[in-house]
Amino acid sequence: MFNISTQALFAQLLVGLINGSFYALLSLGLAVIFGMLNIINFAHGAVYMMGAFCAYFLLNVFDINYWVALILAPLLIGGLGMALERTMLQRLAGLDHLYGLLLTFGLALIIQGVFQNYFGSSGLPYAIPQQLTGGQNLGFMFLPNYRAWVVVFSLTVCLATWFAIEKTKLGAYLRAATENPALVRAFGVNVPRMITLTYGFGVGLAALAGVLSAPINQVRPLMGADLIIVVFAVVVIGGMGSIMGSIVTGFALGILEGLTKYFYPEASNTVVFVIMALVLMVKPNGLFGRA
Amino acid sequence: MTDAPMKTHAAAPQMRDETVVIMAMVAVLAALPALGVYPYFVMQALCFALFACAFNLLIGFVGLLSFGHAMFLGTAGYASAHAAKVWGLPPELCILFGALSAGVLGLLVGLIAIRRQGIYFSMTTLALAQMIYFFYLQAKFTHGEDGIQGVPQGYFLGFLDLSKPLVLFYVVLAIFMAGFLLIYRTINSPFGEILKAIRENEPRAISLGYRTARYKLAAFVLSAGLAGLAGATKVIVSQNASLTDVRWEMSGEVVLMTLVGGLGTIFGPVVGAFIIIAMQQYLAEFGQWVLVIQGVIFVTCVLAFRRGIVGEIAQALRRNL
Question: pLDDT tens-digit profile of B101-110?
């Protein structure tokens, strides 16, 4: 029953779950940022890459281990994001959404170009933290500990974010400010600061995904460039109206991609885009989108 | 009755201005090889200028920012390269076939992409372009990373020997002008007026009885076909079709050219294309820094210079250019 091919199937499912974790973390960040800033952050892939590089530098230059990097890298990159929001993105308030896309596209070119210039296109290795080396033999497949950790931890972060936004008082302010910033400001809430923090948070999520990905995918300057396009498709499929929608769509598409890799590998690169086209034909606003 | 003559009076000097600029542009472009400018550079810039004009038709006059226009450039390139090398068709048919292929792809992509507006439209076109890229990466006839090399140029219309640089140059200039004038005519036609109405206020255009989805689709197909015309011509000039033309970087580049020249201006994309291509020529030795510089130009344009070069000049002269 559990022959080589079922093992391969479960292995691809696991790869799909891991990719799904990154899709979910990234599209969640995009959705949160879009809600507050009305900007699609094209630099999201570059930020993800910076998260991985940040972990790499922390380990190799400052001898700071993975666990600290998991907290420190999102904070540092989030801080950088907030500085960018204050100096640049804020000036675009009230303009067409497209200018936000163009500005962040320019930022992505700059960031990726600088990293490519110093690190070329090859990958730098990042060791799996020793507490998570090895794996479990589940009988039907071998489950590496680190990969299990990535899936569980990403899911936890996603659900915590959902809880914070949908169920807490702070989240209620955030949702209110998304709907009507002027009114929330009139109640004495510092909306510009909230916008800056939101951008920092969304960017921090991407950096966190980068740190998680470093031991699996190697650290490369262009690791986020192709990923962000798939994440855009995920966002179009899910629609950005719902936090839970982003999470579910992210994981579901990762799993679907993994299944495709097993059953029809030639289409594994394109399956997400094909699904996007189909969803647009049937439900133009996305599975969880509002009109 | 009194309205009509007044309208033509107001429009006439405007049209005359533009006609003068167009004629000046043709004269300058035609004289460039005689002035010692390397013809190959001008031909490449002209292909990108047409590509940018086709892109600008969508963003400038319908308000749709396509972030996947490279798929049309690249598709036409592969189609015409294949037609020339494998089928042995004459260059004019190859170019026509390339443009038609891009137009057909534009119809398919347009049917999907125009179902969403604004930011979602941009993301959808980008994602579909990436899908097309993966298709060409895996397809046999594109020869993957190698591309289709050594595309024969042949005789245009049977008697113009395209292997002579100057002949090739004037054929490319003629193709560019044909595309440019078609776009110019389109945006000044009743069809173009409806497109602008959709850009300004789509619900209102719908309430006036226009089926805006059809107009947007028609504009999308036209833009795709003209981008294809540029891509097919580019392949006949450079004699090779490669994956570079389908990558997302190329889609970004055409946005940059149009932004630098001026979104929604008539001459902006041409100016922008010449500037960016010249920049790439002179900065080629700096490798990856070219991308960084492009990024800096993007950021600067968006933050401080949204009208672009031609847009600023037009503003200063209080004219539409």
Answer: 999 999 999 9
Residue A88 lies in a domain: yes
- Residue A290's pLDDT band, with cuts at 50, 70 and 90, is low
Is position B295 within any domain?
yes
Domain encompassing residue B139: 17-317
Measuring CA to CA, how many Å separate A10 from each of A7, A150, A250, A261, B10?
A: 5, 16, 19, 11, 71
In angstroms, the separation between the Cα of residue B67 and the nearest Cα of chain A is 10
Among the partner-chain residues B65, B289, B291, the one whose CB lies closest to the CB of A112 is B291
Cβ B261 vs Cβ B271: under 8 Å: yes
The pLDDT tens digits of the residues spanning A241-254 come to 788 888 999 999 99
Q: How does pLDDT run across A154-189, given as a tens digit for each residue?
A: 999 999 999 998 889 888 888 888 888 888 888 888
**What is the ipTM for the molecules in this complex?**
0.87
DSSP E strands in chain B: the ranges are: 155-156, 160-161
At A136, which helix (H) or strand (E)? strand A135-137
Q: Which two tokens stand for residue B212?
A: 């805006």
Contact B295 A99 (CB under 8 A): no
Compare all CA atoms of chain A with the CA of B66 and give the residue at the minimum distance: A98
CB B112 to CB A232 under 8 A?
no
Residues of B with CB under 8 A from a CB of A: 59, 65, 67, 112-113, 115-116, 118-120, 122-124, 126-128, 130-131, 134-135, 137-138, 248, 252, 255, 259, 287-292, 294-299, 301-303, 306
CATH number for B75: 1.10.3470
SS3 at position B160: strand
Count other Cβ atoms within 10 Å, centred on residue A46. 30
Q: How many domains does chain B have?
A: 1
How many C-beta atoms lie closer than 10 Å to residue B293's C-beta?
Answer: 17
- Classified as helix, coil or strand, B149 is coil
B4 falls within a domain: no
The beta-carbon neighbor of B124 closest among A103, A269, A280 is A280
HSE-up of residue B16 (Cα within 13 Å, Cβ side): 6
Interatomic CA distance for residues B232 and B68, integer angstroms: 17
Half-sphere exposure at residue A80, Cβ-oriented, CA atoms within 13 angstroms = 19
% of chain B surpassing 90 pLDDT: 49
CB pairs under 8 A between A and B: 120
Q: What region does B63 belong to: left with phi over 0, alpha with psi -120 to 50, or beta?
A: left
Nearest to A106 among B112, B113, B299 (CB): B299
**Domain that residue A39 falls in:** 18-224
Q: What's residue B157's pLDDT?
A: 84
If one counts every other C-beta atom within 10 angstroms of the C-beta of residue B235, the result is: 34
